[in-house]
Structures are given as C-alpha cells and as structure tokens.
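Letters spell out the chain; the tokens describe the backbone. To illustrate:

===
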Amino acid sequence: MSNVYKDLKELEAKGEYIKIGLIGAGQMGTDIVSQVAQMNGVKVPVVADIDIERAKKAYQLAGISTEDIIMSDDTAEINNYIKEDKNVVTSNGFAVPEVESIDVIIDATGVPDVGARIGLETINNKKHIVMMNVEADVVVGPILKKMADNAGVVYTGAAGDEPGAIMEIYNFAKSLGYKVVAAGKGKNNPLDRKANPERVAERAKQKGTAPHMMACFMDGTKSMLEMAAVSNATGLVPDVSGMHGPKTTIEDLPKVYSLEEDGGILQNEGIVDFALGNVAPGVFVIVTTDNERIKFSMNYSKMGEGPNYLLYRPYHLASLETPLSAVRAVLYNEATIAPIGDIVTEVTTIAKKDLKAGEEIDGIGGFAVYGSVDKAEVAREKNLLPLGLSEGATLKEDVKQGEKLTLDMVDLNKDSVIYELWKLQKRVFN
C-alpha cells in the first residue's frame, strides 16, 4: 500500500520535489499554497491569477517573503526562476502548463471555459491535471479524461471536495462487495433558488468568499455540479430531476434513503442526492447486503439493524486536501475521481428569473440561471442546455422563471474552447 507521507519525505531527503503549477488564487487556491508550504516533498513554485496582487498575497499568507516572489508572464523566464528556487506569480495562467519544470497543474478557477482550456493545454503538454473546476468537468470531463489517457497522464478531480470524499467511501464499499443504495453530501448553506450576488453579498462577506460563489452554493448549483461529478464517475444517477434534497439528520439517512415501499423516498436504488440538515459538512454512502452473517456483524459493530447501513465521513477539507490528488497523480499515476466514460448525468440550466429575448446569460452564481441535474438521456431527449455552455449565450426568446432552457432557445458562444470540446466529445462517445 502506498504511503504518501513516507514517499514525500524520502523525495525531499533526496532534494527533489513535486512541483505544482496553480491556476487561480481565490479562496481555494490561497488555501492550497498555505497547505503545501507545510508538506514534505512538494512545492507550488508558480501561482497564476488575473489579479497579481491576489497571487502575491497567497504566497505571503503561506509565510513566503516578498523578496522571494517574482512576477513574470514569460514561460522560459518562469522556468528559470523556478530552477533558482524562486516563487513566481503570473497573470498568464495559460502559460503555466508550458513551464518545463512543472509536474502537475491544479485548476482552481471555477470558470467552465477557462477550465476546459487549461485542461486541454495541460494534457497537450503531457502534464497531470487536477481539475478543481467541477463546472468544466461535468461538461467536458469525459473527453479530457480520454485525451489524458491517450497522452499517458492523469486527469483527476480533487481530494477534499465532496465528490472526491464520496469517491473514497464508494470505492471502500464496492471493494467489500456492498450494494450502493445512495451516495450524497450534506448541503452547507440554506437553499435559495433566487440567490444572486447582490442578495447574498452580506453572507459572502461574513464567510470570506466571493458573492458569485456564495450564490452558486445557495441556489443549489454547486450541489448539482458536485453530485453530477459523482454520477459520471460511478454510474449512479439522480433518482428524480434535480434530486430529492430532503431535510433529515445523520441518524435518519439510512431510512430516508430507502425505497418508498420500505418507508423511504427513493423510487430506485443506486442514486446520487444531497441532504439538508445536520449532515453537512459530511458526505455519505448508504449500502446494503443480502448476507445474513454480514448483517449480524454490522449490527454487532453498531451499524444498526439494517437493511441499509450508513458509511459517513463527517468532514471534507476542500482545498486543504487537494494537494494529495496532485501528489498521487505524480507518484502513483492515480486519479482521485474521474469520469468512467461518457456523461451519465447532465447539469442543465433553469431560469432564475423571467428572462427576455436578446438577453445574455451571465455566469454560474449570477443573476440569470441556476443548475439542476437530469439523466443524460433525458437531457438529450429534451435538448436541454448544459449549464457549463450557458455563459455568454444569448436568448432567442423570452423564458419564464423556473423554466428549463433548451439549446434551441439560445445562441451559444461558439468561439469557446469548452464548446469545441463538447462537440468533439459528442462525436467521440456517440
């Protein structure tokens, strides 16, 4: 069994380091720089952000002196500075995958088209990619994963995010032969479908996050994106459009996530969902078995009488765990979580308010739309608009609040990398 701590310590003892190129120095990226600073055998020698001062601050908060931080947008120059053990900030995130000394890229931008382009550039430069950008992953993750496989590099989601944390439990359960009834997460913020950057500004300030990110959390979009990523990596599907999202407790999860005829809410087993209540910030997998001896031992182990049992992790450390995905990609060629094939579940687009023809849709966590989930075959049958393609799209007709947008209702931004990858993905997997 691999021992990350031991292997990193041995790496540093030899004077060697895994070098991470970080793109995006927001809340998540800033955390990553500080976390890596206290780890053995790994460094973040270059941080990219359109706001250079924010990139510098990420280093400063990690305890790195201003004298050791250099600004450059030139790839060769950045590479030379890294060889001199300097820390480089750059406004050109797309240059980072070209830096020879970098082993692995972490995309922490959260912008679908930017993530698609970063993923493509990273794979083309034969480097591993840790895609914290679930917004891009649920749209074009399958084609990027296929490209990475062909290039001999790792495409992976991030440890610490709910999908990665769920995947750990899911793999544990499946390895032991349990049937997975449901997998899900606790939703951290109250659900408000009308949440927008203005409406949540005060809460965002209190939490120290950007208003559009807080809006994305509160309007439910982030939960939809995260559970779609789990679906695409496992084959589990939403039980109903938009998932159930029941208000419950940790103790009641095994009963709530059972079939309707057994007193639960499920029409089918093998599903993804999210829960409101004291479940957050944890993640869970509900399992079952037909073996009477195993049921006896589960009861003996204080797991309850069954037939459903809760495997629960009470925390996810988000970006603080992400460096482990970068390390595992480099040392062991392992992915934390990645699509198993074509899209299984699509994150579709719903009007947050009445929209008018000619209006341009703003980004995720904005004023115009929020995300929901549908099985991929349903989304294709109804020609529903993938959320990750919606930014910059122009409406061709009026749309009512709560209405699902279709591809026929909009003119897409066809100059984007994510659109080109999406078209290629459809051709490859169809």
